[in-house]
Amino acid sequence: MRKVTIAEVAKRANYSKGTVSAVINSKNSVKPETRDHILKVMKELNFRPKGVARNLKKTSQDKSIGVIIKDLNYPFYASIATGAREYANSKGYSVIVASSESDHEREKELSHLFSTKDIKGAIIAPTVEGRAEIEHLFKLRMINYPFVLLEDVKGIQANVVAIDNTKAIKRAVTYLIDSGHTKIVHFAGPPNSSHTQERIEGFRHAFSESTLAFHKDMIVSVGSNYEESFARTLDYFKCRSRDSYPTAIVCFNDLQALAVLTALKELKLRVPEDISIIGNDDIYYAKIYPVPLTTIRAPQHEIGKKAAEILIENIESPTLLPPKRVVLDTEFIVRESTKVLKPELQFTK
Which of 7, 147, 220, 266 is most buried, judging by how many CB atoms fall within 10 Å of its CB? Predict the structure, then answer.
C-alpha cells in the first residue's frame, strides 16, 4: 500500500508542509488547536513520519526499532532487550537500546527522538515512579507511531506485553500460607505502576482464599530501586517491636529483595531463619545472592520477543491495527530464602 506523504497531510489539513513538519517535530511555534487538527488528520490518513533519513538510499539500517528500558544495569531489562533483538534480527531489523534511567523527561526525549528519526517503532518500559506522565505516549498514538508498552499505563490504549502479576503473587503468598506463615507483608513498588496494583491484588486474593484475615498494613510502600528500598526497610523494622515483625516478606522485584536482604543483615536478622523473603523476576543473579532467592520467574526473553513481534507486525501493516494485550505466565522458583514453619503441611500446587 502506498505511503501517505507530508504533502497529502498538509493538503487535507489545509496547512503548509512547514506547519505539518513543525507538529511532527513538536515545535512550540504551532498553536494548540492547529496541532490538534493536524494530528487528527495524520491519524485519519494513517500517516507515519519517516524521519530525517527519508532521502537516503535504503540500507539495512533503515529497518530499525528502538527499545527504551528503565535501567541498563538491571538484568531483567537486559534480558527483555536481548529477546527483542533476537526476534527483530530474524526479521531483518536492527535494534537500538536506550535507558530512561526511570526519568520521565528522559523517556519523553527518547520517544521523541525515535519517532522523528528513521526508527520504525519502539518498545517502551514506561516510567511510573513519581507522577505518571502520558502526554508523549498520547502523541505517539496520535501520529500512528508504532509502540509496545511493557506494562499498562492508565489513559493510554496501546499494545502491551506483560506477565500475570495477580496470579504470580497469589501463588507466592499461598505457598507461604501453606508453609505455616501467618505474619506476611508485601513490600510494594511505585504507587502509579499497574504492576504494583496487580501484585497487591494478588496478595489480597491469596488471603481471601485462606482462613487468614487481610489488613491494609500488610501492604508497605517501599519502591523499586535499591537505595530507596534499603532505607525504607530499615525504617520499617526500626519502628516496630520484635514480636510484631513479619515472618515473611513478598517483594516487588528481585532488586528490592536484594536491598531487603542487605538491610536485614544490618539489623542482625537472619534469612530465612527469622524472616523469609520472596522476590519477583528471577534475574540471573538471584540464584547467587547472599541467600539464593526464592522468586517468581518472569519469561524475560519471551516478553522481549513477543513485544518485538507485535511491534514489527504493526510497522509492516498497511492499515492501523487494534491494540493487542498479551499476558504471559510465570513460574514459582523455591530456593533458600524461604523457610517452612510447618513441614507437615501439604503445599498447594
Answer: 147
Within-domain flag for 346: no
pLDDT digits (tens, 9 = 90+) for 56-102: 344 444 699 999 999 888 999 999 999 999 999 999 999 999 999 98
Q: Scan for cell 519523553, then name that residue.
A: 108
What is the per-residue pLDDT across 125-137, written as a single tens digit (0 to 9) for each?
999 776 656 889 9
Burial of 183 (0-12, 13-18, 19+ CB in 10 A): middle
List CB contacts of 256: < 8 A, sequence separation 6 or more: 187, 189, 222, 223, 224, 226, 229, 279
pLDDT at residue number 330: 98
- Residue 228 identity (one-letter amino acid): E
Residue the block writes with cell 507483608: 185
**Domain residues for 204?**
165-298
CA 159 to mean position of chain CA atoms: 13
CA distances in angstroms from 211 to 132, 204, 244, listed in the order given: 37, 12, 20
Q: Is 119 left (phi over 0), alpha (psi -120 to 50) or beta?
A: beta
**Same domain for 260 and 215:** yes
